[in-house]
Amino acid sequence: MPSLSDKQSVQQVSELLGYESVSAFITMFKKVMKKSPMKYMSDLNQLN
Question: Which phi and psi angles does 10 have, rounded to 5°?
Fold first, then answer.
C-alpha cells in the first residue's frame, strides 16, 4: 500500500481510491490485510 507508506492519512488514501467513507476503506483494508491501516503503518515504522 504505497500511499500509506508515503505518510498519507487514511482519509486521503480512502478518498484517492474512491471510497465514500473512511470506515468503508478501513473495513476493506482489514479484510484484505488482516490488520487496520493504523496497525499496518505502525508495523512499517517499526521496520525502519
Answer: -60, -40
What radius of gyration do the chain's Cα atoms show? Answer: 10
> Residue ranges of the domains in the chain?
2-47
Please give the model's pTM, rounded to 2 decimal places: 0.80
The set of residues, in sequence order, having a beta carbon less than 8 Å from that of 34 and lying 6+ positions away, is: none
Classify residue 12 by burial, with Cβ atoms within 10 Å: 0-12, 13-18, 19+.
Answer: middle
Q: What is the pLDDT of residue 24?
A: 97
Ramachandran category for residue 21: left, alpha or beta (phi over 0 → left; psi -120 to 50 → alpha): beta
Q: Report d(CA 44, CA 48) in Å as an integer.
A: 7
